[in-house]
Structures are given as C-alpha cells and as structure tokens.
C-alpha cells in the first residue's frame, strides 16, 4: 500500500470499543481463618509485585497473631524476588514470635524454594508435603 492509498484521518471511521478492565498481575486476599489470618496470593510474583506480600504480611504481624498462614497455591510465576519477600516475612514473623505457615504452594514456588536451598524454614502442614 502506498502513502496515497492509506486513508487520511478525515476519512477514517472511528472505532468505539468498550475498554476491558486490565487483569491484575497479582492479587492478595487477606482473610481471618478460624485458626489464623491467611494471605492468599494469586498470579505472578516478580520484581514489581513481591514486595506487596511482605508489606501486607508485616502489617498483619504487627497485630501479633499467634500464627500467620500464606496460601501460594494460586501463584503462576515465582521469581527470586518472591524468595526475598518470603525471607523478609519470615524475619518479621520470627522477630514478633509469630509462627509463619505455608498453607499451600504452587509447583513453581515449591520448585524454586527447593532448587535454591534458601533455608526458608516455614512450618509446612503435612498435607502440603505430599504434593
């Protein structure tokens, strides 16, 4: 197509589409389970989102619950930044004498934690160890 064949702005028909809401990269959900507060993480945990996990967890830890549970079963991508966020959260929990528990983990999380051997010592329920 040559320049002469391209429609000009005057002749171009405007297209009207309703904007679809952008799907979030990651979501966090805080709920009070009957045993402990639980943070559920879904989506991608990368350099732009990982800090949100530790920030929310540290906020919950300031309330001094006996236990804090993390559900990472909905994570679709997990980077080294996610490990850093878990280490920060673990440190904050230990300092406040709060037990940090991984309720469930996605395969990508389990794999990265195992391969890196970061020494994250989280209380993992027996039901999750069989996955």
Plain-language structure description:
The protein is of the alpha/beta class and about 130 residues long. The protein has 4 helices and 4 strands; from the N terminus they run ββαβαβαα. The longest helix has 16 residues. The radius of gyration is 21 Å and the shape is globular. The chain starts with about 25 loop residues before the first strand and ends with a helix. The C terminus is likely disordered.
Show unreliable segments: 126-131
Oligomer: single chain
| Tally of DSSP helical segments | 4
Question: What percent of residues adopt helix (DSSP H or I)?
Answer: 25-40%
The gyration radius over C-alpha positions equals 21 Å
Large-scale geometry = globular
Number of strands: 4
Please name the defining characteristics of this protein.
four-stranded mixed beta sheet; alpha/beta; 131 residues
Architecture blueprint of SSEs:
Elements: E1 26-32, E2 37-45, H1 50-61, E3 67-78, H2 80-95, E4 99-105, H3 107-116, H4 126-129
Parallel strand pairs: 2-3, 3-4
Antiparallel strand pairs: 1-2
Helix pairs in contact: 1-2
Outline:
This protein has about 130 residues and is of the alpha/beta class. The protein has four helices and four strands; from the N terminus they run E-E-H-E-H-E-H-H.
């Amino acid at each position: 197509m040559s320049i002469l064949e391209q429609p000009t702005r005057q002749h171009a028909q405007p297209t009207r589409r309703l904007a679809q809401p952008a799907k979030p990269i990651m979501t966090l959900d805080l709920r009070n389970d009957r045993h402990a507060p639980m943070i559920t993480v879904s989506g991608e945990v990368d350099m732009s989102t990982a800090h949100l996990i530790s920030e929310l967890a540290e906020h919950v830890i300031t309330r001094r619950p006996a236990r804090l549970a993390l559900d990472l079963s909905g994570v679709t991508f997990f980077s080294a930044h996610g490990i850093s966020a878990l280490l920060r959260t673990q440190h904050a929990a230990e300092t406040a004498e709060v037990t940090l528990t991984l309720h469930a983990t996605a395969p990508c999380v389990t794999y990265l934690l195992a391969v890196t051997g970061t020494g994250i010592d989280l209380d993992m329920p027996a039901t999750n160890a069989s996955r």
